[in-house]
Design goal:
The complex is a heterodimer of chains A (about 290) and B (about 550). Chain A is α/β, with parallel strands linked by helices. Chain A has helices at about 20-30, 50-55, 75-85, 105-115, 130-135, 140-150, 165-175, 195, 220-230, 280-290, and strands at about 10-15, 35-40, 60-65, 95, 115-125, 155, 180-185, 210-215, 235-240, 250-255, 260-265, 270-275. Chain B is α/β, with parallel strands linked by helices and about 550 residues long. Chain B is globular, with a radius of gyration of 24 Å. Chain B starts with a strand and ends with a strand. Classes of the chains: A alpha/beta (about 290), B alpha/beta (about 550).
């Protein structure tokens, strides 16, 4: 068996959805502390990491998907760890970002037990601004509690989003759950209030609703560009369009909260887009451009 | 074209307009009609076939929730407590004592290479009174060949000294390695951290080969033998290799069942997952139907991993586990609903049911979609208020009736207690509220046999003979509907299968006795043959 002589040091990052695990990984990458590291991410959505940054560091990212019906990720991780060790050039460090519902203890045990690995560090990240909401949600409370109790290091972020009194209360609750854990407090910028900042650029007054029917298939990239440029004018857009690709595929277009999403669909009964936005020249121009597609 | 008319002792069509008959006519693989032979002759020349004259014909059974793992797990030695048939029909007697487990292992220990591990599955010592399964018991079989016995739950493993040595367990510091008074491993390994060194040292994976054509063929045979003509594989990876295997296996004209795979949604980015299924739909043919998406929210009640609402578990830990954050399930329901695909959501505990009903409520408010048929799977503990929401949302259920027999005793004494055991698998309530439902086996969790499943729903007897929830029993007729038309509806196939109606595919199950007019227990009625598109699959 071709096993590297020294075990690969492993870092485990736990924490609920939105607790800042991916940000933490990006920080680790940007700091350049870890060279030739493997980042193993157990996530169910997209990996939100700056790909260019990773490439420049020659680090690897692997996505671990959920396999077993009731065992969570553990079975899958077990097989993955075996594979990694057999790579011709194994990584010099492993950073495992657990999924939001993972309990740390079994993962810490597995990383410790896995031949060729050594658990170096395990921490749980906590979004201070979401702590109370999670802690009072019966569907996730038990998981949040275990995530705090089972590690020796807690990283509590967005602490500056709370008032003084809230901060005291949250920190006390966390300390009551794990009095001996080391704690790192971090601040984070509030999300930019884009709608306020850009309000001057758009018209005002009551919203208008326009419906655009498409007689033809359309170019999705052009449509997306048009809508993306118009996010200050538009409040909402939704509809169904047929693309000019060879399959003539249909897509649901959604714009809400300034975020544009496109989803391929089997629906094919209509080809129309409803747009809701502020009246004015920008809106008129957008409608004209959409009709010209 | 030739018209073939099969005569029978009785035919139950599941078609309310023409519920019974003694002759079914088939042309071009479809049902031409059920009725008196003289009426059928008006269509033209008829070839009368009396081979089933003393049998009873019903619509082909539809198993709406099982897994192709049933076709591959039999590569390993069966050690379960209950009698079970392998895909080839060989009966493996249930093992009622630790000695019986030992004897079966001993009988197989000389098969295969001496240095290869002997791997067995299905063992659950909860049924044994005294002696534990440990390394001493396994060493008596062999202390040189590695032996690995996997617990029925897949969460525990029993190993002998040879395996302990190979995996280096003696010096490992892991809480899942159970130890004796001297601090030596007892051979019991709990959960994946402790099982990992064994998988690692012996280099095997119980899920290997799940989606190759051989496993699919064995799976189809196992289903056919129990009268199934349409079967699901309700958690398929839908990798390129898996799709290729599904296409290759079902391309054979004599593949004996229609196969309905569902995408394992948690393994895919939602956008890629929905595109994957939509592309695969182009491969659909009469024996293969893509279009389902499966979400697995929580674990299983008997493993204490299902998510329960208050008061949680009767004994042991307080609550179970999620397979992904509840928010992820919520978002995935929104996404797949919008794509027009058909969701099947594993929800064992009532807390899991609750979050999925919330997600469906929002999806249907934002994106109204009549006749979506999203289906909640298992729903073992679903409450009355939740059933009402299911009805209001137009969702379907597939209820895990077999659980009452296999784990009812455990649920009564260990996991749920008396009151919640009365509402387990509430088929009568679902029926009363007009919810369309199927009942299922979840093979390999329990064996495939729709007649056995129907027996469970009608008698609600546990393995020890206790009746759980008299008020939730359904009639034989309703149970027969659940394993045919009800399940077909949850798969959106009731326009083609599920009843013997003119125009539908001639999928027929041939029984030795009348399930609706017989004193024989449903589970003891023999399956004589099945017809798929009017063609005998070989039994009779």
């Amino acid at each position: 068996m071709s096993t590297s002589i020294l075990p690969i040091p492993a870092t485990l990052l736990c924490g609920f959805l939105g607790s800042g695990k991916t940000t933490r990984i990006n920080t680790l990458i940007a700091s350049g502390e870890l060279t030739n590291a493997l980042f193993l991410v157990n996530d169910f959505g997209r990996i939100n990491i700056d790909a260019e940054l990773i490439e420049s560091q020659e680090d690897h990212i692997l996505r671990l998907t959920n396999g077993c019906a009731c065992c969570g990720i553990a079975g899958n991780l077990s097989a993955q760890l075996r594979d990694i060790r057999r790579w011709p050039t194994p990584p010099s460090h492993l950073v495992f970002e657990a999924s939001g519902i993972a309990r740390p203890r079994p993962l810490m045990q597995l990383l410790d037990a896995a031949h060729g690995f050594r658990l170096e560090h395990a921490e749980t990240l906590i979004d201070a601004s979401a702590f109370t909401r999670h802690y009072t949600d019966a569907a996730v409370k038990d998981i949040v509690v275990d995530q705090i109790r089972e590690v020796a290091q807690l990283r509590i972020n967005r602490i500056n989003w709370l008032t003084e009194a809230q901060r005291e209360q949250v920190l006390q609750s966390i300390a009551a759950l794990n009095p001996t854990a080391g704690r790192t407090l971090e601040k984070a910028e509030k999300p930019a209030a884009t709608s306020q900042a850009s309000s001057k650029a758009r018209g005002s007054g009551p919203l208008v609703t326009e419906s655009v029917e498409f007689a033809n298939v359309i170019d999705l990239a052009t449509l997306e560009a048009l809508l993306s440029e118009a996010t200050t004018t538009l409040v909402r857009a939704k509809g169904l369009v047929q693309a000019n690709d060879h399959a003539g595929s249909y897509h649901v277009i959604q714009l809400a909260g300034g975020r544009l999403t496109r989803t391929a669909t089997r629906a094919h009964q209509s080809r129309a887009l409803v747009v809701i936005g502020y009246p004015g020249k920008d809106m008129d121009r957008l409608i004209a451009s959409l009709r010209a597609l | 074209m030739t018209i073939t008319a099969y005569t029978a002792k009785a035919i139950h069509t599941m078609n309310p307009s023409q519920p019974v008959g003694q002759c079914v006519a088939i042309r071009d693989g479809r049902i031409l009609g059920v009725g008196p032979i003289d009426e059928i002759r008006r269509f033209g020349e008829v070839v009368v076939d009396d081979r089933y004259a003393d049998k009873v014909l019903v619509p082909g059974f539809v198993e709406g929730h099982s897994h192709a793992l049933e076709g591959s797990v039999w590569s390993h030695l069966y050690l379960g407590y209950f009698d079970r048939r392998d895909p080839e029909g060989k009966l493996w007697e249930g093992l009622k004592t630790p000695e019986a487990v030992q004897q079966r292992l001993a009988a197989h220990v000389d098969q295969g290479a001496a240095d290869s591990p002997l791997i067995a599955w299905g063992l659950d010592p909860v049924y044994f009174d005294a002696a534990p399964i440990d390394r001493w018991l396994l060493d008596a079989v062999s202390d040189t060949r590695p032996i690995v016995v996997i617990h029925a739950s897949l969460h525990v493993m029993f190993v002998n000294s040879a395996t302990i040595a190979l995996a280096g367990l003696v010096d490992m510091d892991l809480e899942g390695i159970v130890r004796d008074d001297q601090g030596q491993p007892s051979g019991v390994l709990e959960e994946f951290a402790a099982m990992h060194p064994v998988f690692d040292a012996l280099d095997f994976d119980i899920f290997e080969g799940v989606s190759d054509t051989r496993a699919l063929n064995r799976y189809a045979q196992a289903a056919r033998r129990e009268g199934v003509t349409t079967i699901t594989d309700l958690l398929n990876p839908m990798s390129d290799a898996a799709i290729a295997a599904l296409r290759e296996a079902t391309a054979a004209k004599d593949f004996p069942v229609r196969l309905v795979p569902a995408l394992n949604a948690l393994a895919w980015d939602p956008q890629m997952g929905s595109e994957r299924v939509q592309q695969a739909i182009d491969y659909n043919h009469e024996r293969l139907q893509f279009g389902l998406v499966k979400l697995v929210t929580d674990g299983a009640i008997q493993n204490f991993t299902a998510r329960l609402q208050w008061p949680g578990y009767l004994t042991g830990q307080e609550n179970g586990v999620w397979n992904a954050p509840p928010q992820t399930f919520h978002d995935m329901v929104q996404h797949y609903h919008q794509t027009g695909l058909h969701l099947h959501v594993h929800t064992n505990g009532d807390e899991a049911v609750s979050i999925i009903l919330d997600a469906l409520d929002e999806a249907l408010t934002m994106w109204p979609r009549p006749d979506h048929r999203h289906t909640l799977q298992h729903v073992q503990l679903i409450r009355q208020d939740q059933l009402k929401r299911v009805a209001r949302l137009g969702a379907c259920l597939n209820i895990f009736a077999n659980h009452i027999y296999y784990w009812g005793d455990v649920h009564l004494s260990k996991t749920l207690g008396f009151d919640r055991c009365q509402r387990l698998e509430p088929t009568a309530s679902a029926d009363r509220m007009g919810i369309v439902f199927g009942i299922h086996c979840d093979a390999p969790v329990t064996p495939i046999s729709p007649l056995f499943t129907a027996w469970c729903a009608t008698t609600r007897e546990t393995a020890s003979g206790v009746t759980l929830g008299e008020a939730e029993k359904i009639s034989r007729a309703r149970a027969l509907e659940a394993i045919t038309l009800g399940a077909a509806y949850t798969l959106r196939m009731d326009d083609r299968i599920g009843s013997l109606e003119p125009g539908k595919l001639a999928d027929i199950t041939v029984l030795d006795e009348d399930p609706l007019d017989s004193t024989t227990s449903l589970k003891d009625i023999g399956v004589f043959d099945t017809l798929l598109s009017g063609r005998s699959t070989g039994g009779g």
